[in-house]
Write a structure and sequence with these properties.
GMP Synthetase, Chain A, domain 3; Ribosomal Protein S8, Chain: A, domain 1; three-stranded mixed β-sheet; three-stranded antiparallel β-sheet
């Protein structure tokens, strides 16, 4: 009985266990199916999000590509526009030059036609003259034979004697005539020239500051000198590197020297050093900061100085780049003469001279103001200051009248206008007046020696003296070998030699002195 009960209980337990296991397996399968479904939904959602992000990124990339394409297209259009404008400008210049060439060609053709007509006339005259010469030659041959028979002298001997007499007489007459004409012309010309020049100079009063290649900076005390040097000289090296100027610290008490051939750099270094001493913080970083700041302020001051000079002369329309270069001339000197002050003085002189003579005063003043503009950058560009100035004026739109008057001020180009002559004269007046310029002693002595050497090379010269700081050359000649008429020719020949061989401001007066002494003793 018990065994049957246990058996039944075991069977029932096994059935219950089987039922539980079946229910648990079904539950597990249901849970697994749910997890699988959830995973599939998550995968589809993630895939959809990824697809949306990919599409958005593709859209963003396309937008960025279109923006870059538009920027590149705009840049290309700007560059193309600039190139197109340059090409149009070159095309207009080419058309203008072509028209000028065509006009010149027509003028040449007209001149050739006139020359051809003149040549035909000359040929006809030559034919007529040849016939006359043949007739005259025959008559002269007969007369020569008769004269030789009468005079007992050959024709060649008579010809030489006659030519010698005529040459001496012609030279004496020419010398007397030249001396008379020169005296009359000099009296009238000197009177008129003095009036015009005096009227021009009377209105101009300019001061000139003599500068050199060295600037002195005063120190408040000797302790500041050590701070300027810095540890192992690092402050000096930083200042020299930042400014390009040599800083000289020697045993001179209370001062340091700034040395440079560039006056603008020297001025930047001076202002920066004074500002550093005033501030008290002197180290390489501060030095670079102060130098950069001073450089910007000085550039602004240079522009204001150039603008002020242009406005003072009545030319506010000058190109801004030319105004900057004009302001740089404030820090440039020539033989100790401040170039900006010299340019303004030349402009006033040229304007007054032009007004006195009734020519274009504005062209003369403008060309005179800009005549030394090339000196502002002649240490940075190749070529003479005349060539550089010509290129700068053409680049910034100055007229050909102004450019021509500017390029003639040293005599390298022959003047084609009165304004060009007046600019040259005003430049010489400003440079030659006493105290305006300081010459180097060595070159000054060489010029005096060269003047005397040129005079001593002529025959009949006894002594030659260069006086009045080389403005006058006095020549004493031997009265036995040089006559009064020969003295006139000698002065002209010496003056021509000086003009051809020497370079000098203003003019040099050549005076020939001939003295005749008669000595007799009473016994």
């Amino acid at each position: 009985m018990n065994t049957a009960v246990l058996l039944i209980a075991a069977v029932v337990g096994a059935g219950v266990a089987a039922a539980v296991l079946w229910l648990f397996g079904r539950r597990v399968r249901s849970v697994a199916q749910a997890v699988k479904s959830e995973a599939e939904r998550d995968a589809r959602r993630i895939l959809a999000v990824a697809e949306q992000e990919a599409e958005q990124r593709l859209k963003d990339a396309a937008i960025m590509a279109r923006e870059k394409l538009l920027e590149a297209r705009s840049e290309f259009e700007r560059e193309t526009h600039d190139y197109r404008q340059e090409l149009l400008t070159l095309e207009r210049q080419l058309v203008q030059q072509s028209s000028e060439v065509a006009e010149r060609l027509k003028e040449v053709e007209r001149r050739e036609a006139a020359v051809e007509a003149l040549r035909q006339q000359l040929e006809e005259r030559e034919t007529a003259i040849a016939l006359q010469e043949d007739a005259i030659a025959a008559a002269l041959a007969e007369q020569r034979i008769e004269l030789e028979r009468i005079a007992g002298m050959t024709s060649e001997q008579a010809k030489q004697e006659l030519m010698r007499a005529m040459e001496n007489e012609a030279r004496m007459d020419a010398a007397r005539t030249i001396r008379r004409i020169e005296e009359e012309a000099n009296q009238e010309a000197n009177l008129r020239a003095k009036k015009v020049i005096a009227a021009a100079i009377q209105r101009v009063a300019a001061e000139h500051v003599v500068e050199s290649t060295v600037s002195v900076v005063d120190l408040p005390n000797d302790e500041m000198k050590g701070r300027i040097i810095g540890r192992e000289g690092r402050n000096i090296r930083a200042l020299e590197t930042a400014t390009g100027v040599d800083l000289i610290v020697d045993y001179t008490p209370g001062a340091v020297l700034l040395s440079s051939f560039d006056p603008v750099k020297r001025e930047v270094a001076r202002l920066a050093l004074e500002r550093l001493m005033l501030d008290g913080r002197i180290h390489p970083g501060r030095i670079e900061e102060v130098v950069a700041k001073v450089q910007g302020e000085l550039d602004e001051k240079i522009f204001r100085d150039g603008e002020a000079a242009a406005i003072e002369l009545g030319f506010p329309d000058i190109h801004p780049e030319l105004l900057k270069l004009l302001g740089r001339l404030q820090y440039r000197t020539s033989y100790g003469q401040n170039v900006l002050a010299h340019s303004k003085e030349v402009a006033w002189l040229a304007g007054h001279l032009a007004a006195e003579l009734g020519v274009n005063a504005r062209v003369a003043k403008r060309a005179a103001l800009l005549h030394d503009i090339g000196k502002a950058v002649d240490r940075e560009m190749e070529g003479t200051h005349l060539d550089i100035g010509r290129e700068l004026l053409r680049k910034y739109g100055e007229s050909e009248e102004v450019i021509h008057a500017m390029e003639c001020h040293h005599g390298d180009v022959d003047p084609r206008s009165i304004e060009a002559v007046l600019v040259t004269a005003a430049d010489a007046l400003s440079a030659a007046r006493p105290g305006a310029r300081r010459e180097i002693l060595e070159s000054y002595l060489k010029r005096l020696e060269k003047l005397e050497a040129i005079a001593n090379e002529f025959k009949g010269v006894q002594k030659a003296f260069a006086i009045q700081a080389g403005r006058e050359l006095r020549i004493i000649v031997e009265s036995e070998r040089i006559s009064d008429e020969d003295a006139v020719w000698l002065s002209r020949d010496v003056a021509k030699r000086i003009e051809g061989e020497l370079t000098y401001p203003g003019q040099i007066k050549v005076t020939v002195i001939r003295e005749t002494r008669a000595v007799e003793y009473a016994k």
